[in-house]
Amino acid sequence: MKSDRLIFWLLIIIIISVKSGVNGYSQASLNTIIEGQVKDLKTREVLPYVSVILDNTTVGTLTDSNGKYRIVTSKTAYKIKFSFVGYETESRIISPGKAQIINVQLMNSSIELGEVLVKPQRQAYRNKNNPAVELIEKVIKHKEFNRKENLDYFNYEKYEKIVFALTNISEKIKQLSTFRKFNFIFNNVDTSRIDGKQNLPIFIKETESGYNFRKNPRSGKEIIKAEKTINFSEYIDIKGVTANLNYLYQNINIYDNEIFFLTNKFLSPVASTASLLYRYYIIDTSMVNDVRCFKMFFEPRNPADFLFHGFLFISADSSFAIKKIDMSFNKGINIDWIKDVRVIQDFDKIGNKAWVLTGDEILIEFGVTQNLPGMLGHRIVSYKDYSINEPIADTLFKGPDLVHKKDSYEKSQLYWDSVRTPPLDFPEKNLYVVIDSVKQIPAFKHKMNFLMLIATNYLNLGKYELGPDDTFYSYNPVEGSRARFGGRTTPEFNKSIYFESYLAYGFTDKQFKYNLIATYSLPKTSIYQFPVKSLRLNYMYDTKIPGQELLFSTGDNIFSSIKRGVNDKMFYNRTLRFEYLNEFENHFSYNIGYSFTRQAAGGNLIFSRNDNSDPPNMVPYISISELYLKLRYAPKEEFYQGRLYRDPVPSKYPVLQVQYSIGSRALNNDYNYQKILVGISRRFYISIIGYTDVSAEAGKVIGKVPFPLLFIHNANQSYSYQRNAYNMMNFLEFVSDQYIAVNIDHSFNGFFFNKIPLLKKLKLREVATFKALYGGVSRINDPELQPDLFRFPYDKNGVPLTYTLEKKPYIEASIGVSNILKVLRIDLIKRFTYVGNPNVASLGVRIQLKFDI
Q1: Do 268 and 257 meet the contact criterion of CB atoms below 8 Å apart?
Q2: Strand-pair category, 99-101 with 32-40
Q3: Labelling 642: which of 143, 154, 339, 799 has CA 20 to 30 A away?
Q4: Domain that holds residue 724
């Protein structure tokens, strides 16, 4: 899949490359490294989950299940402290900037927390008579009163900053001769984000907004007042990058039962059923911003489950509210490309009315392994100027939930200095200037052009791009070897007008094909910028495989040339199309248009009437003249905006689509008919056992038409897995004039494999699919009953190749393994019905290139 999401990450890699050349310093010489083991003084048993912290810092950790710990930090400290419920706190002197081993043995004690007396003893964990579980149950009982969404109204001001930084910069990379011209950028190196690790900021995005909420009817609206980011608009779509970041850094509400995080759902430690899957330990009492709190540690019962671990600070009063949370997840869970995660949230009480979120920090370190260079994503959000239970006018909530002020990208430096909380540090301040300087270096431009070629398959020549390069050569049995050459204009040519064209030639059918597209953007902005309002004119002469609909590539892609079975039937289409697209901020859109197609049969496909004439009554072509209307509604949708398509971000909200078209002899059509198509799709998250993508659709043809105008069901004869196609169905195998279909694809996220040590280590994931299609052809469109209609396709021996679904549904299902080498998915697919049809197999293997977190 090619998209701006891929471009964004490859862009990050390029910037890493051009920055690697600084005269580095010895990282180890500045780090304090402390490791050791904690045991019970009397029994000599190891003590897991002991709190280990450097005095007068926030640097700390917990001992693991074997009582071991390790801290690496660049911060200066002279004392380390060990504390655990039921034991006396111990302190040891440390030497800053050195590696040292400190083992300790803790002495038994007893700690009274409120009315609960906790005595140290080693015993099997259980919920019954467990003071930590009793405390968490009180938190759960009171959470509806403590969450701010229980208020009638509230609003606040919000400042958000997302910074990406390169981590683990090795000396070998710095010394490569290729990067010597870019040493200046390493003046921005710092170690403040991850203790003990050099990191280099390379991307920053800032947002200042206001948020308004009302309880009844439940509505929320965010107004973006100011935005600022590193500008790579000549290479990527900034809105697409923003969607990518928003998807990774979705807001976390600890009081929700399920928390969407890193494209997965995690069960919250204060969910109503959390005590069944988490363990809880009361560690200590502590003061957090003058609020006395119980400090509690929580962890998953099964380390492989999609659950968090960390600390809860619970107010020691009758509210049992969460004052602070500091959590991560087990590094052994089945999530790719993630080295480390930390989530920190702070809550304050506004008067005596409510506890509200005032600070939110998420750190995600991306990478392949701990020792190789990686990427740190750091999101900091501050909330201020809360207004509680003061009525907000209903008119404010009209329109979309997210609104950008027109001048949001035009704010002055003084404005930004006044709203930033916290202010930018030196590397962040300098980043905007440094990146602008890098973009002017010819070597960077050359690397970016090469990167764009890899990511988009287009070679950027300024005002024009050549490509896509994966269509320059392809093969099919009808055209033979096919050569194609084309390209498209860029916004540098004109932001409002877009041209695209190609010329192709088949060496077997000896015919030229071509496509000419002109698009005009009505708002005088780029046609790639949402919401789009555009006019498009398209004239094309080319081939099409009946029943092949590809989502993210063209039919003449070189990688689609290899197909199973027989692929010798094609349409030759000469099409003129004119359409108007209008998108709205609320993600409702309509597309109205007109198309005229003169369609001829190609290869071993023929159009012949079923009137038993000898020779067959051949029809050279049919004329298809249609008016059509497409409606689409995708509430709260986010997507990665690419140059040729959009890659939607899966969410819990459904996507609804309706398409209506009408063909009429009055429009110079050979037939009178109407077509209606309705579809809905949605992703369902099922907490620790993964997620399910479900789609359903139904279609109806009203009128008498030959088989090319029926629904030719989407088949796949390649060896790559196609989610929207029937992977064991042949092209043109089934047609219908009415049908219903369902497609279910479930990913277990390693729920079962994580229980098997070897599979867990490989981070493999289980997937399962089910697809069913049921339909039929009514009497009016059955060529056996209507001799003036075209005979269904057949082979050279007269064996029928196209069928209807009158007797039973078409069903196929699969089980598979994804995340192979982190990029591959392999499915074993079983076809359950119509296995006696010609040239079909009941079992097959399909492969898909798939990147997941």
Answers
A1: yes
A2: parallel
A3: 339
A4: 672-853
